[in-house]
Design a protein that fits this description.
By secondary structure, this protein is mainly alpha-helical. Helix content is about 50%, strand content about 5%. It has four domains: about 45 residues, no CATH class; about 100 residues, Ankyrin repeat-containing domain (Serine Threonine Protein Phosphatase 5, Tetratricopeptide repeat), CATH 1.25.40; about 100 residues, Serine Threonine Protein Phosphatase 5, Tetratricopeptide repeat, CATH 1.25.40; about 90 residues, Alpha Horseshoe (Serine Threonine Protein Phosphatase 5, Tetratricopeptide repeat). It is built from 20 helices and four strands. It is elongated and about 90 Å long.
């Protein structure tokens, strides 16, 4: 006779979708059994919204099965055995972007709560969706009322989670390799960032560990422009934000040198207010205009060529020893930057505090530049 709990299960909407499977179970080890006797047990499998969503992803079925279950009264917010809601299940099949979005929109149309966390209070649908490639699912959740700043159990928002996915991808591959997972992640993370910020995500809200979102992205070597552009387009604060590189704290402009960020991003950071004249402790209290002239002359030349205010500043700056940046460029050995400085009026024979000239510096450290600089003096 069926017990009361089992009778209640049969009365539930799931009962209409029950499938009975007969499986054979052999005798316990060591037990004797009559010849040809077969031990049988019946297992009942109940189709749920969760199983229908995963089936649609796995076998390519359409959403008719999910629709039928919803029409039969299945709870659009019910937890499965793992404690996930149907919307979380839809987010977890993001590898099939179209079906993930379709399931999400269907569930939302039937009243599913886009802000309901899993049974553990850990993550909601949006926290999972932003870790996959289904931007349509992210947009559907946001349009359906998902809170872009809803914290997960550890305090991280969806913006933090998607940037965390980018960091994880960078450890598994390279951004400049089109075949790597990192390159693929860069594309969808940029789209997610744009969608989140368009729906009110706080672009400056620190991560649980205290990092600014833009610092989280900028500290990645070769971080794709699209991700940083999306953050800057949304008004992310750049001035005064620091990242850690090789154990040293530096600002975002210095990060351009040591994390191989593009000239485009460096220009945007300057436009966003990042100062080029603040002393850097790790570099003997020398500012960006001096450090970049020595250690990253290609970046210095690109910035000076495309940003007149920066060009004027780097030409006018003198180091603690009275040297112009021409001497620093000579120390770094960059003929293109040396030539540009001389074209802007800096003289190879300008005497510094210690009595030396840029020409003397070139003769000591990069003799190949002496002839170029002497010709400039003659003309």
């Amino acid at each position: 006779m069926l017990g009361a709990p089992f009778k209640e299960q049969l009365a539930a909407p799931e009962a209409a979708n029950r499938r009975d499977h007969v499986t054979t179970r052999p005798p316990a080890k060591g037990a004797s059994a009559p010849p040809r006797r077969v031990y049988m047990e019946v297992t009942r499998v109940y189709e749920t919204l969760h199983s229908a969503i995963f089936s649609a992803w796995a076998d390519g079925a359409d959403m008719a099965r999910v629709q039928r279950l919803l029409d039969d009264g299945h709870d659009a917010d019910g937890y499965d055995e793992a404690g996930n809601t149907p919307l979380i299940s839809a987010a977890l099949v993001g590898a099939s972007a179209d079906r993930s979005e379709a399931a999400t929109r269907l569930l939302l149309a039937h009243g599913a709560d886009p802000n309901r966390l899993d049974a553990r209070g850990d993550r909601g649908p949006l926290h999972w969706a932003v870790c996959g490639a289904a931007t349509g699912t992210v947009v559907a959740l946001l349009e359906g009322g998902a809170d872009a700043d809803l914290p997960s159990g550890d305090g991280a928002t969806a913006l933090h989670h998607t940037l965390g996915e980018l960091r994880g991808a960078s450890r598994r591959g390279s951004f400049d390799n089109p075949e790597s997972g990192a390159s693929a992640a860069a594309a969808f993370v940029a789209a997610h960032v744009s969608a989140l910020t368009a729906h009110g995500a706080d672009v400056d809200r620190p991560t649980p560990s205290g990092d600014a979102p833009i610092a989280l992205a900028a500290s990645l070597t070769l971080c794709p422009d699209a991700v940083l552009d999306a953050l800057l387009d949304a008004g992310a604060t750049a001035s005064g934000v620091h990242i850690s590189t090789d154990g040293e704290e530096v600002d975002l402009l210095a990060g351009c040198m040591f994390c191989d960020l593009s000239t485009h991003i460096a220009l945007r950071l300057i436009d966003a207010g990042c100062p080029w004249d603040v002393p850097y402790g790790p570099f003997g209290d020398r500012p960006f205009v001096e450090v970049v002239s020595q250690y990253s002359p290609e970046l210095a030349l690109a910035l000076a060529t495309h940003h007149e205010a920066f060009a004027e500043a780097i030409v006018a700056y003198r180091g603690f020893n009275g040297f112009s940046m021409l001497a620093v460029a000579a120390l770094g050995g960059s003929e293109p930057l040396v030539t540009w400085f001389m074209g802007r009026g800096l003289r190879p024979d300008e005497v510094g505090v210690d009595g030396r000239t840029p020409l003397d510096v070139a003769g000591e450290y990069n003799p190949a530049l002496v002839d170029v600089m002497e010709r400039a003096i003659d003309t």
